[in-house]
């Protein structure tokens, strides 16, 4: 986080909440079950690997990712780790370079079977702070990157109506550079991006109240409402508030007219160890974190499978008849 101070209805049972003429996101037991595949162990292991709390194998070598600061050579190893993880899951990942070859966005794509030209993006930045030899960045932002990787893992066996992109951005901390480079390219190539879910710092909850913060704009309100609806269906323990900020990667997409939102831990309960060497796995609220990851996966699946139900009916005229 760069802080600035200032339908599967045919295959699986689906249940609608509420009645109205407008299509609504519906509940699916299947989506509920697959989102639960993000577990404490799977989330923690990936976080430890990205935050340098355990070794990883990258390019056949066993290493420790001690820092993901953009000027640290270890950051490129983090990009390689993400790339190889996507490849292991069966994707054909891409590296988008910028700033010469220093910056590296890592992207995996699953092409939609019904609307391949229309896409949803789940994303987070993997670079971190502070500078120096040690920068674990467990919350900021291994957590968002792990959510992207877990979504890619859990959704990999399935086909979806819409195209999905799983993206890990570089150089967010120095001005949203990586996401801006991607959004600019997407706009120039006329990509039809229906919504961008940006996850940045999703693992800190010091008061254990399960509150998270949303940053959105008018263009993104419908997409945001769907996220709120799916979170209420699949992780109802959460509460949310709002804080308008352009200090994370969602705003790169706003600049090019794409719907995007930021989901972040409670802005009013901010990480005490932000941008320090103490932002490590020991400070994370794992129950909150795992629930946040599951909510994001459920949202992505519901959107990409177009799990919407529209109910229409002819009203019964009111009266005192006792006939059937």
Structure description:
The strands form three sheets. This protein has an eight-stranded mixed beta sheet with strand order 4-5-7-6-8-11-9-10, sandwiched between helices. The chain is 31% helix and 20% strand. It is α/β, with parallel strands linked by helices and 324 residues long. The radius of gyration is 20 Å and the shape is globular.
Topology diagram in text:
Layout lengths: L23 E2 L3 H7 L4 H11 L5 E3 L2 E3 L9 H16 L5 E5 L4 E8 L4 E11 L12 H18 L6 E8 L7 H12 L3 E8 L11 E5 L5 H14 L4 E4 L7 H5 L5 E6 L20 H19 L3 E2 L15
Parallel strand pairs: 6-7, 6-8, 8-11, 9-10
Antiparallel strand pairs: 1-12, 2-3, 4-5, 5-7, 9-11
Helix pairs in contact: 1-8, 2-4, 4-8, 6-8
Uncertain residue ranges: 4-21
- Binned, the helix content reads 25-40%
- Gyration radius, rounded: 20 Å
Q: What is the overall silhouette?
A: globular
Ends: how far apart?
Answer: 61 Å
Overall pLDDT metric? 93
Please summarize what this structure is:
The chain has 324 residues and is an alpha/beta fold. It has eight helices and twelve strands.
Notable characteristics:
8-stranded mixed sheet; 31% helix; alpha/beta; two-stranded antiparallel ribbon; single chain; 324 residues; 20% strand
């Amino acid at each position: 986080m760069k802080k600035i101070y200032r339908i599967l209805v045919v295959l699986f049972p689906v249940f609608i909440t509420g009645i109205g003429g407008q299509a609504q996101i519906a509940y699916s037991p299947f989506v509920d079950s697959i989102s639960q595949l993000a577990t404490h162990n799977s989330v923690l292991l990936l976080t430890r690997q990205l935050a340098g709390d355990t070794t990883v194998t990258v390019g056949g070598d066993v290493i420790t990712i001690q820092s993901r600061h953009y000027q640290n050579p270890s950051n490129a190893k983090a990009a390689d780790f993400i790339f190889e993880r996507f490849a292991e899951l069966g994707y054909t990942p891409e590296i988008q370079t910028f700033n010469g070859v220093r910056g590296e966005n890592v992207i995996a794509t699953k092409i939609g079977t019904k609307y391949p030209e229309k896409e949803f993006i789940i994303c987070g930045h993997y670079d971190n702070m502070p500078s120096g030899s040690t920068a674990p960045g467990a919350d900021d932002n291994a957590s968002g990157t792990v959510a992207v990787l877990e979504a890619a893992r859990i959704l990999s066996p399935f086909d979806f109506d819409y195209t999905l992109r799983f993206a890990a951005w570089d150089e967010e901390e120095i001005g949203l550079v990586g996401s801006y480079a991607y959004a600019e390219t997407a706009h120039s190539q006329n990509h039809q991006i229906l919504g961008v879910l940006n996850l940045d710092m999703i693992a800190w909850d010091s008061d254990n109240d399960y509150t998270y913060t949303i940053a959105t704009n008018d263009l993104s309100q419908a997409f945001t409402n769907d996220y709120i609806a799916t979170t209420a269906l699949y992780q109802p323990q959460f509460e949310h508030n709002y804080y308008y900020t352009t200090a994370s990667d969602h705003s790169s997409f706003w600049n090019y007219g794409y719907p995007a939102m930021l989901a972040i831990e409670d802005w009013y309960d901010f990480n005490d160890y932000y941008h320090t060497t103490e932002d490590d796995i020991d400070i994370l609220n794992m129950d909150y974190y795992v629930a946040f990851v599951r909510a994001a996966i459920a949202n992505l699946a519901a959107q990409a499978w177009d799990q919407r139900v529209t109910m229409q009916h002819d009203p019964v005229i009111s009266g005192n008849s006792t006939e059937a």
